[in-house]
């Protein structure tokens, strides 16, 4: 401070000595007007004042700084937030990409660009990387952690064993561009502190943000076998007068003892901060291009955003897939080939909507995956295309954005998209009786062959974040395959009524995984114990609307009934038909659902004309197919419910009855395909049924 004391500088600038102390220790930042006064008082320029903190750190060595264990004997054997998710790349892709979407810079309408890079290091390349991260300083801490018989200790032990015996380490880097970056002070409120210093701090910047728990970032460390993540951020707004090359590393280990001293969980890779008295604290530093390259954190250009490098990436779920994978020819459980494929699938499944464009606007998100080995390309960069992986849903959303939806599906194979709205009565908060009636947007279109599970409803909110995908129950028999999408809250568009209220309400109804809407502690606290019933009503109304939209026209229903009646009319039987019989019994109502074991479970009501009770009939179950004969399914159970009995698979009606009910369960061993991938047809026959 040019030989001045804090008190002298405070007097010159016109502030308190405490304020000057806060600037020096990084606990506060002076306003621009005050910075000009400081520059005048010190006889220097504005740039020097802005970079003062950085300059004082130049020359200090970058090293690892471990948090001492608390003196009260407390011990934490891992980060609880990391156990909220599966340690696999699918969960990582969902959470990390959602965070990037939430941090998108909306000005200019450009998408946030997210790229995942797998890089398998071996040999000398691995040795250079370990020198760059000062591996030898970490070895005693890793050995102490790995010696513990706790869950985290076992995982670290496996990661070290894999790296040492196979001379191999997998890095997974997540880059985002056109995002805010880790702005803010090292210690005070802001994006940097929320991600690198704190747990359960959700520092979301936009009202469209998906998360609210601050748990998603934990997947970064959970995906590392070594609990180690390095970061390089380019900031959207300057910090200490700079924007590019802000680096820091964070290590999450369990409590441990090294050389007789106890350490708590985390450690940071950074420069020592001399302004924090009484403690060894490392803070971020502004690195040059050489250091950034050694740490394998080089970014493309100066576009703002952040790169997270997960050291020792692994994928627990791929261990299961490994037993059924086909043809990749790779024996490794953590094969980068397999991880590449699972990353692409996770992005396709969770972010197809954010990657869909319409009405001349660009999408919200662009995503890609590439795989390297020692920096050389193994699998070329693969751009995730929602039109290839989710053709029907993408078509539905694009039609909504373009304003080309219709009121009814009138032509098969034409790719029509029907739109309607579904009410959500948002409960009030803080003694308000009602939060208003939101109108969620429901889209339905014909399903394509590549859409996966048919007849599924996909629900989403916020910046088109997929919350859940689930089949629609109790569909009419013979329903043509379809896909449905429900856009609620902000996803319903700027013109949707009470979108803010619905968004807040639905977000409060989600668990940390954000994969369903239901009862949560937050919902009970913010609203009322019965508020979740509003969600139940929304779901019921949505299912009802879907069934109405996909139902065949009435004219067609008559044709179907006539067809069934025609198939029941067997010529040989008519010769012995009683003179009093006016007609054959017919199926009037049929309710069906898929049971836990994958079997179709049905309850059918039969309408019996006068005199028709003398006809013995055989219920026949078939799978609906687009062409060719319908595969016949056997019954594992067939039972009479009302006004009938079942004898050797044949229905016999009670004399004089006009309606009868029976139930049945199909035999899953006779299903040629999974029930979730098919539709069911039930017919009544006068013979012994189809074989």
TrEMBL record:
<protein>
    <submittedName>
        <fullName>XRE family transcriptional regulator</fullName>
    </submittedName>
</protein>
<dbReference type="InterPro" id="IPR001387">
    <property type="entry name" value="Cro/C1-type_HTH"/>
</dbReference>
<dbReference type="Pfam" id="PF01381">
    <property type="entry name" value="HTH_3"/>
</dbReference>
<dbReference type="GO" id="GO:0003677">
    <property type="term" value="F:DNA binding"/>
</dbReference>
<dbReference type="InterPro" id="IPR010982">
    <property type="entry name" value="Lambda_DNA-bd_dom_sf"/>
</dbReference>
<feature type="domain" description="HTH cro/C1-type">
    <location>
        <begin position="2"/>
        <end position="49"/>
    </location>
</feature>
């Amino acid at each position: 401070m040019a030989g001045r004391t804090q008190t002298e500088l405070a007097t010159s600038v016109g502030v308190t000595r405490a304020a000057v102390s806060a600037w020096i220790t990084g606990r506060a930042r002076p306003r621009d007007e005050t910075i000009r006064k400081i520059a005048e008082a010190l006889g220097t320029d504005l740039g020097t004042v802005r970079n003062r903190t950085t300059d004082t750190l130049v020359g200090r060595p970058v090293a690892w700084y471990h948090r001492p264990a608390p003196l009260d004997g407390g011990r934490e054997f891992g980060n609880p937030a990391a156990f909220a998710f599966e340690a696999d790349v699918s969960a990582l892709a969902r959470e990390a990409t959602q965070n990037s979407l939430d941090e998108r810079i909306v000005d200019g309408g450009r998408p946030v660009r997210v790229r995942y890079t797998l890089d398998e290091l071996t040999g000398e390349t691995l040795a250079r990387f370990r020198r760059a991260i000062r591996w030898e300083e970490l070895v005693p801490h890793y050995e102490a952690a790995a010696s513990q018989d706790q869950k985290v200790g076992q995982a670290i032990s496996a990661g070290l064993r894999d790296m040492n015996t196979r001379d191999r380490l997998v890095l997974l880097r997540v880059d985002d561009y056109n995002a805010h970056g880790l702005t803010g002070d090292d210690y005070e409120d802001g994006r940097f502190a929320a991600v690198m210093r704190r747990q359960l701090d959700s520092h979301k910047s936009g009202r469209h943000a998906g998360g609210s728990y601050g748990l998603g970032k934990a997947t970064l460390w959970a995906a590392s076998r070594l609990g180690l993540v390095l970061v390089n951020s380019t900031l959207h707004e300057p910090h200490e007068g700079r924007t590019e090359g802000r680096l820091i590393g964070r290590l999450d280990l369990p409590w441990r003892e090294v050389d007789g001293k106890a350490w708590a969980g985390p450690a940071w890779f950074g420069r020592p901060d001399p302004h924090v008295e009484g403690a060894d604290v490392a803070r971020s530093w502004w690195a040059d291009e050489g250091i950034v390259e050694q740490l394998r954190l080089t970014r493309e250009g100066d576009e703002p955003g952040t790169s997270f490098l997960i050291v020792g990436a692994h994928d627990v779920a791929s261990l299961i897939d490994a037993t059924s994978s086909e043809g990749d020819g790779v024996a490794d459980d953590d094969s980068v080939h397999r991880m590449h494929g699972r990353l692409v699938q996770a992005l396709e499944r969770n972010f197809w909507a954010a990657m869909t464009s319409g009405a001349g606007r660009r999408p919200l998100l662009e995503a890609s995956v590439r795989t390297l080995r020692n920096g050389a390309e193994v699998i070329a960069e693969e751009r995730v295309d929602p039109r290839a992986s989710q053709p029907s849903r993408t078509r539905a959303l694009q039609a909504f954005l373009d304003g080309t939806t219709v009121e009814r599906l009138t032509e098969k194979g034409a790719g029509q998209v029907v739109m309607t709205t579904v009410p959500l009565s948002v409960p009030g908060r803080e003694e308000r009786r009602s939060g208003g009636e939101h109108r969620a947007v429901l889209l339905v279109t014909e399903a394509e062959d590549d859409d996966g599970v048919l007849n599924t409803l996909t629900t989403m909110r916020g910046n088109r974040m997929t919350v859940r995908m689930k089949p629609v129950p109790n569909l009419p028999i013979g329903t043509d395959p379809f896909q449905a999408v429900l856009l609620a809250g902000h996803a319903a568009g700027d013109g949707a009524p009470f979108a803010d209220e619905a968004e807040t309400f639905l977000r409060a109804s989600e668990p940390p995984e954000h994969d369903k809407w239901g009862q949560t502690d937050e919902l009970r606290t913010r609203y009322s114990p019965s508020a979740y019933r509003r969600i139940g009503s929304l779901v019921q109304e949505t299912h009802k609307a879907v069934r109405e939209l996909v139902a065949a026209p009435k004219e067609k229903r008559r044709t179907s009934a006539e067809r069934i009646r025609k198939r029941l009319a067997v010529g040989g039987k008519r010769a012995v038909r009683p003179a009093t019989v006016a007609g054959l019994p017919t199926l009037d109502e049929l309710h069906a659902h898929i049971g836990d074991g994958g079997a179709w479970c049905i309850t059918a009501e039969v309408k019996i004309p006068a005199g028709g009770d003398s006809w013995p009939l055989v219920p026949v179950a078939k799978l609906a197919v687009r062409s060719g004969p319908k595969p016949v399914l056997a019954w594992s159970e067939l039972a009479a419910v009302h006004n009938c009995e079942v004898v050797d698979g044949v229905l016999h009606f009670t004399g004089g009855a006009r309606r009868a009910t029976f139930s049945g369960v199909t035999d899953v061993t006779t299903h040629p395909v999974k029930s979730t991938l098919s539709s069911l047809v039930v017919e009544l026959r006068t013979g012994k049924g189809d074989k």
